[in-house]
Write a sequence for this structure.
């Protein structure tokens, strides 16, 4: 996976209004980073794409770039990544690898064997400061909505943002 040079266009966070103005069909995510089909736009974005991204990202630069491509939906994760250094990135990737391994190895029938064979080498605990990287706050509700309505995560994120903006407008216009 190439180490992407941060482009001028993605060196800052993007607001929902800016994304809307550009047209969501023009909002694509990097195939190299997210493993999506060429030309995938945000409407096609899935939680599996984010998982692929975290599992395969090779550098702190690419981590920040990918999260900027998801701005404003992953800005809490982006804030964490922007504060990281290379040592933090390595620690995060090691903990992520351990988390993934522990989850895949800990099915109910395998857990007793796993604990017996590796009692002292359980997965490194994910430091709390990296939790936002594992699942950006906005992904939580959007993933539930996407599953309920059988749509892509990207569509759910966009619709929730529209609904939130409409609710905010309505509340600000309501006389007290």
């Amino acid at each position: 996976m190439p180490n992407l040079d941060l482009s001028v266009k993605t060196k800052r966070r993007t607001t929902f209004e800016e994304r809307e103005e550009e047209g969501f069909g023009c909002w694509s995510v990097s195939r190299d980073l997210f493993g999506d089909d060429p030309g995938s736009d945000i409407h096609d974005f899935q939680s599996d794409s984010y998982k692929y991204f975290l599992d395969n990202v090779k550098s702190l630069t690419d981590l920040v770039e990918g999260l900027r491509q998801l701005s404003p939906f992953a800005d809490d994760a982006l804030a964490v990544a922007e504060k990281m250094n290379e040592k933090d990135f390595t620690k995060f990737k090691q903990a992520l690898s351990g988390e993934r391994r522990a989850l895949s190895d800990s099915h109910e029938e395998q857990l007793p064997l796993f604990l017996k064979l590796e009692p002292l080498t359980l997965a490194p605990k994910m430091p709390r400061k990296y939790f936002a990287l594992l699942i950006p706050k906005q992904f939580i509700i959007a993933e539930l909505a996407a599953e309920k309505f059988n749509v892509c995560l990207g569509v759910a994120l966009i619709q929730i943002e529209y609904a939130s903006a409409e609710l905010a407008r309505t509340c600000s216009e309501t006389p007290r």
About this structure: The chain has ten helices and no strands. The two ends are 55 Å apart (CA to CA). Confidence is low (pLDDT under 50) at residues 1-10, 119-123. The longest helix spans residues 153-173.
